[in-house]
Amino acid sequence: MHLEPMVFRFTASGPSAESAFAKHASKDRELPVDPFSRRADLTKVGRVTVVHDRSALGPVMAGYFNATVPSSVPYGAPLCEDDADWLADRLIEDDAPCVRSGGAGALLLEAAGPEPSWLFFGWSTPLG
């Protein structure tokens, strides 16, 4: 599946998921390499896929997850961090298309404010 995989998960803000990811990846690359705490090479991520609803989990898991969220929360609406973390874990474990082969998934955490906040997750090769 992945050669020497390194999972990543972080939050960042920006006008779009792609710009927020690019800005964070650029700043991450400037940090010194720590030999005791490896991290993913975010420059190797080729695309960012926004997960708009829970259907990315497949019918069984999406049904389970949707049952735990109030019906007043529409698909694509911002998620709380706990729900976003849970969803990101399932998508990483299932090697979902949004994180497969050098991609990153993005979940909307907060739309209000000057820029939307996103939770990014996926697999990449280790930095350094």
Key descriptive features of the protein:
single chain, 128 residues, alpha+beta, four-stranded mixed β-sheet, 4 strands, globular
Give a verbal description of the structure:
The chain has three helices and four strands. With 128 residues, the chain is of the alpha+beta class.
Beta-strand content bin = 15-25%
The percent of residues in helical segments reads: 25-40%
Number of continuous helical runs? 3
Q: Which term fits the overall shape?
A: globular
Structural class: alpha+beta
Strand order of the largest sheet: 1-4-3-2
How many E strands? Answer: 4
Radius of gyration: 15 Å
Helix and strand element order:
EHEHHEE
Given as residue ranges, the uncertain stretches (5+ residues, pLDDT < 50) are none
Mean pLDDT: 80
Rounded to the nearest angstrom, the distance between the terminal CA atoms is: 21 Å
The major beta sheet can be summarized as: 4 strands, mixed
Short recap of the structure:
The protein is of the alpha+beta class. The protein is 28% helix and 22% strand.
Q: In terms of topology, how is this protein built?
A:
Layout (H helix, E strand, L loop, with lengths): L5 E8 L3 H14 L16 E4 L8 H9 L13 H13 L9 E8 L6 E8 L4
